[in-house]
Amino acid sequence: MELRHKTEVAAFARKNGAKIGDEFSFASFQERRHYFWINPRVESVDSEWTILLNNQVKREVIVITVPPKTFSLSKSVKKGSLLIRKDKPYYIEMDILEDSLKDRRTDCDFSPFVTFRLKY
Asked: pTM for this one?
């Protein structure tokens, strides 16, 4: 089995017990950079936020469910606050490191919010 697209990954996660609504953030693993590059909308932090990470190298889907208001936003790099994109201020700029599940710029840690790790 190969999972490449957002809809395929979401369907696989749902089939394996993850509760995922219609709105969620998605990223595939950037193998040369060792992180998941993702640009969710800024309003994502205001409600329960589901993030699907597809590591096609390890053949694993990581489901992250972040409670509302867990992270603050910042227009400059600040530890513990997610970075708002300068060119598109309605998006957050995130690079989630594969090994730690932390954002590489801000050190925001997503690992406590992992709800599923699904091998395929």
From this structure: 0.95
